[in-house]
Amino acid sequence: MSTLQEETHNHALLDRRVLVVEDDPTVSEVAATYLRAAGFIVDAVADGFTALQRVMQTPPDLVVLDRMLPGIDGVEVCRRIRANSAVPVILLTALGTEEDRILGLQAGADDYLTKPFSPRELVLRVQSILRRSIVEFAVESPVVFGAFTLDPSARTAARAGEALALTAREFDLLAFFLKRPNQVFGREELLRAVWGWTHGDLSTVTVHVRRLREKIEVDPTHPLVLATVWGVGYRLEGAVRTNAAV
């Protein structure tokens, strides 16, 4: 990416709203300070019920959500957000087990960071998710794939004319495959290309593929669109064409 492109991308992120949901005042203050310094408008709350109210009243562009919260935990907050919104969610967790990370991803989180985390890394994760949703696909033509249509500019997808409620990462994952039909990609490749991670938990990819299949397959237990190539990775089956009239 050229310096001019990077400046354009970063400018597009200015004044985006980030909701930080964290009951530890020190962690909340540090996260909010770094995000504000990066140009984001930050609203911080300390419990899940207040977070759900804010999401409904003043929809943010992204939510940074602590796993352990008083009253209602972060996983349940994420589930409730997902029932009404596709806003990106980054889950903060002090529980480092794979099972806990998978639980958060299954609840609808787009990304996660394990505590203690670098506030600079948090800013980079937020920028990565929002940059893809705001800028990356802005000039691309709509795509048709069988019963599916995807408009990268509007970041909308539909099956047989019915809108698909995709999270930010699910949309990015589907868009990546639609641009590369009939090619096999391993989880490491997808982690680098879609998440922008050079290393990380490969179960992140597995869970997102499973969630995406639940929304695009007739029978997610026997996928025909997003197929598994055993021992290698995943492949989008069929022919894709662009269609500016979609």
TrEMBL record:
InterPro entries assigned to the protein according to its UniProt record, in alphabetical order: CheY-like_superfamily, OmpR/PhoB-type_DNA-bd, Sig_transdc_resp-reg_C-effctor, Sig_transdc_resp-reg_receiver, WalR-like, WH-like_DNA-bd_sf
Keywords: DNA-binding, Phosphoprotein, Transcription, Transcription regulation, Two-component regulatory system
Domain of life: Bacteria
GO biological process: regulation of DNA-templated transcription
OmpR/PhoB-type domain: residues covered: 140-238
Location of the DNA-binding region in this protein: 140-238
Signal peptide annotation: none
The keyword Acyltransferase is annotated on this UniProt entry: no
Record's GO cellular component terms: cytosol; protein-DNA complex
Classification via SMART domains: REC, Trans_reg_C
Gene3D superfamilies: 3.40.50.2300, 6.10.250.690, Winged helix-like DNA-binding domain superfamily/Winged helix DNA-binding domain (1.10.10.10)
UniProt GO molecular function: phosphorelay response regulator activity; transcription cis-regulatory region binding
Domain Response regulatory positions: 17-130
Residue positions, PTM 4-aspartylphosphate: D66
Entry protein name: DNA-binding response regulator
